[in-house]
Automatic annotation (TrEMBL):
InterPro entries: FYVE_2, Intracell_Transport_Effector, Rab_BD, Znf_FYVE_PHD, Znf_RING/FYVE/PHD. It holds the Pfam family FYVE_2. Gene3D superfamilies: Zinc/RING finger domain, C3HC4 (zinc finger). This is RabBD domain-containing protein. One of its GO terms (biological process) is intracellular protein transport. Residues 4-122 form the RabBD domain. Keywords: Cytoplasm.
């Protein structure tokens, strides 16, 4: 499906219109990359904020997110099914009556939904590819720039 685009067939006005659309598309892609990057940085900060530091290494019965010590009978902690860490009741987000996730796993899933990453992960599972392909718009923009 890789075919070359011949821009000589288009009139100059049409070429300009196509070029404007492609430039706008490239700009929007860069803005989207920046937005996704910000979301991932926020997730990293949330994850690092909750990681156990050296002082808490000896305290095995503490929350993986806030480092709060667990009780013997009350708030003994539970294992998050997403990350397998022991989590206290304050660091859980209830998804439904029977399912909860820790704050980091919940934020990670939310980012996948906001960025559409879940779609590409599922598609990659069903249709594995070797590498990333160049879009038709990018090919067209390159061939147009060669003409100039």
């Amino acid at each position: 499906m890789s075919q070359e685009f011949n821009l000589n067939l288009l009139k100059e006005l049409e070429q300009e219109i196509v070029l404007n659309v492609l430039c706008r598309d490239e700009m929007l892609r860069k803005l989207e990359e920046q937005r996704v990057s910000k979301l991932k940085i926020q997730l990293q900060q949330l994850w690092h904020k909750g990681t156990k530091n050296a002082n808490y290494g000896s305290q095995k019965r503490s929350c993986a997110r806030c480092q709060k010590s667990f009780g013997i009978l009350i708030d003994r902690g539970a294992v998050c099914k997403g990350c397998s860490h022991l989590i206290c009741s304050q660091c859980r987000i209830t998804v439904n009556a029977f399912l909860w996730k820790c704050t980091v796993c919940y934020a990670s899933e939310a980012i996948k939904v906001k960025t559409g990453e879940w779609f590409f992960e599922e598609r990659a599972k069903k249709f594995p590819t070797e590498g990333r392909y160049e879009t038709a718009g990018a090919k067209l923009l390159k061939s147009y720039q060669k003409l100039r």
